Fold this sequence. Notes:
Elements: E1 2-4, E2 11-14, E3 26-30, E4 33-40, E5 64-69, H1 97-106, H2 108-114, H3 136-143, H4 161-176
Antiparallel strand pairs: 1-2, 3-4, 4-5
Helix pairs in contact: 1-4, 3-4
Amino acid sequence: MxxxxxxxxxxxxxxxxxxxxxxxxxxxxxxxxQYLALLVGWxxxxxxxxxxxxxxxxxxxxRRLVGFSLEGKAELPKQPxxxxxxxxxxPGYKIDPALAEKGGSIWGLCGSCHGGGMIAGGMAPDLRxxxxxxxxxxxxxxxxGGAKVNRGMPSYPNLTDEDxxxxxxxxxxxxxxxxxxxxxxSGGQ
Length: 189
């Protein structure tokens, strides 16, 4: 974040927030002290738009409401280094091309949070690297049964068993594909 002088346009203050800024800052006065606050970290409308390409990963980097005052002296805790989840590749897994194609058409329900290109943007897990789609009963409980509604994952009760199987095949297909986007050689486990 960079603050400029309103009269000269010169930089008067900078701070590395450790993640992308997700909303415009606000300023307010309380008990005679001026404050500036802003949301940091990915979410909202930009959740699935590729921030994961920058190494912001769900469960690794924290979204924050950050507040500053001219009198403030506290150090902002550092965020972890960029992290890139490593897709789970299962040797010998037989991907059904027809099911994977159908799953790709269903993926539109998932892509805005889990990544349109299936590289999650940091607001939701990268499903290529998650064990949840590997266990059919757990996947069904999460996707159709609403087991993670309290964590922001909507339920899709109208998806059929075949739809869930198709999604699993699509996720496995994408997990088994080589990455097409160059990333720094860090992170992943």
